[in-house]
Amino acid sequence: MSTGSVTRILDYGVNNLNSVEKAVRHLGYNAEISPRIGDADRLIIPGVGAFGAAMRAISPLADEIRDFVASGRPILGICLGQQLLMDGSDEHGQTAGLGLVSGWVKYLPKSAGLKVPHMGWTEVKFVENSELGRDVGASECVYFVHSLYCECSDSSMVVATADYGITFCAALRRENVWGTQFHPEKSGRVGLKILENFLAWN
After folding, report:
1. Which of 108, 145, 168, 185 is most enclosed, with most CB atoms within 10 A?
2. Are 184 and 191 in contact (CB under 8 A)?
3. What would the mean pLDDT of 159-173 be, rounded to a whole number?
4. Is 183 a catalytic residue?
5. What is the distance between the alpha carbons of residues 108 and 173, in angstroms, rounded to a whole number?
6. Measured between alpha carbons, how far apart are the two ends of the chain, in Å?
7. pLDDT at 47
8. Neighbouring C-beta atoms of residue 35, cutoff 10 Å
9. Domain tally for the chain?
């Protein structure tokens, strides 16, 4: 637990904020919702909505986000926030992303006969020795709401997977850049533990 550092939850106009702030504060960490990054020690980019609209909204902060990552401070993208970290997305036509993680955002296939979007609780499997998945059981479930998923160019960046017609990236990490396709803030005890693992990392 850290009471001195500040976790900034980025408000760029198209995202889910209050539940993330509540979860961070519940874990005993300082959290601020703000449209500015400033001197934050950690940054969380939540997201609910469409990729293109989100990129247009966040683009004025793109260089500052990249500078934040270059400084070595940890950043976490949640759901759409994770997708924005990628090179780009196929949603409603190809749109470039922040380019912090090499890879592309693709639609979940409908050919498997499953409903898209994928909504609900699904088992997540973390790779062995994953810091994000520390002390998370082998068969825990987390909450998803999404129609697209991240396909990383380097499979070593995939730190957790889930199955929904295909096996897809449920969480990723590249050095100090972290992401979850699921919503840890809506995933009960397990989600709080995953969020705490990010907040405690330095």
Report:
1. 185
2. yes
3. 97
4. yes
5. 21
6. 12
7. 87
8. 12
9. 1
Domain residue limits at 50: 6-200
Residue in this structure with the two tokens 């990054």, named with its chain if needed: 37
Catalytic residue among 79, 150, 152, 169: 79
Give the rounded percent of residues in the chain with a pLDDT score beyond 90.
Answer: 89
- From 21, 91, 140, 185, the catalytic residue: 185
Q: Residue 119 CA to chain centroid, in angstroms? A: 16
DSSP-derived secondary structure letter, 192:
H
Residue 1 lies in a domain: no
Instruction: Give the whole-angstrom CA distance, residue 28 versus residue 11.
Output: 21
CATH number for the domain harbouring residue 191: 3.40.50.880
pTM over 0.85: yes
3-class DSSP state for residue 44?
Answer: strand
Which is it for the CA torsion 135, 139, 142, 148, positive or negative? positive
Q: How far apart (Å, rounded) are the C-alpha atoms in residues 71 and 41?
A: 10
Q: What pLDDT is recorded for position 111?
A: 79
Query: 92: Cβ–Cβ under 8 A, 6 or more apart, which residues?
Result: 50, 51, 52
Asked if residue 165 belongs to a domain, the reply is yes
Q: Is 79 a catalytic residue?
A: yes
Average pLDDT for 52-78: 97
- The active-site residue out of 140, 146, 169, 183 is 183
pLDDT attached to residue 113: 82
Tokens of 165: 């017609």
